[in-house]
Amino acid sequence: MPKNFKDYLPEGKYHCPSENTKKETLTCPSNNIALERMMGQLDRQKTISPNINTSTINTKLMMKNNTTMEWLGGKNEEDKIQVMAKARQESQILKEKEISDEIKLNNERRATLQQRIDEKEAKCTKINQERKELLNEIDKMGGKWKSEPEMTSYIDNLKFKKDKISAIKNQIMYRKDVCYILNESEGQKETTKLERYDLTYKELKPDINEGTLKIM
Q1: Alpha carbon of 93 to those of 87, 148, 150, 170: distances in Å?
Q2: What is the mean pLDDT of residues 67-92?
Q3: Global pTM value
Q4: How many other C-beta atoms lie within 10 A of the C-beta of residue 155?
Q5: pLDDT per residue over 133-149, tens digit each?
Q6: What is the DSSP string of 88-120?
Q7: Could you write out the DSSP letters of every residue in 136-190?
Q8: Neighbouring C-beta atoms of residue 167, cutoff 10 Å
Q9: What is the Cβ-side half-sphere exposure of residue 30, based on CA atoms within 13 angstroms?
Q10: How far apart are CA 45 and CA 40, in angstroms?
């Protein structure tokens, strides 16, 4: 509770408000009942007329809640003509503004969708590039290890421990990932799911430290 009312507690920004603040907030409602009622009316209008636009709903609700027709009925004929003429003129301005806002909103939606598409394409491009680099590394290693002697022979020829770990890691990633083979002649991508092995770096690390390697 103190967290919810910290602004009203001592040293809070609303604690002991000034006379000017009291005057400015004199007409502020103490609850949001009016807003809840307005949302209920809006929901009701959408239920009655699903295709109605927001501008029309606002007009209907304002005329009802502000008793506009009763106010207009108290005017003389000359004032009524002037009010109606001004209302028609301003309604056209509001309609143009509504169309402009709708176009702006649609453009923002398209921009958001395009951004998501670009991000997804960039992510796919990055993944494909990483897989191509992995395939290049595997090619440099002479391809996929198919037996323990082949693996041991390659590891023994490496001088540094970090190179051995990197080689094993590349082989593991090669088995786990889906390799994308670019067919440059046809400009198409072919995907091949490689078989998976229960071969992990954690399992191989003790063998590397001991100088022996085993395929689990």
Answers
A1: 10, 80, 80, 66
A2: 88
A3: 0.46
A4: 19
A5: 887 887 777 777 778 88
A6: HHHHHHHHHHHHHHHHHHHHHHHHHHHHHHHHH
A7: HHHHHTTS---SHHHHHHHHHT--SHHHHHHHHHHHHHHHHSEEEEEETTTTEEE
A8: 20
A9: 1
A10: 9
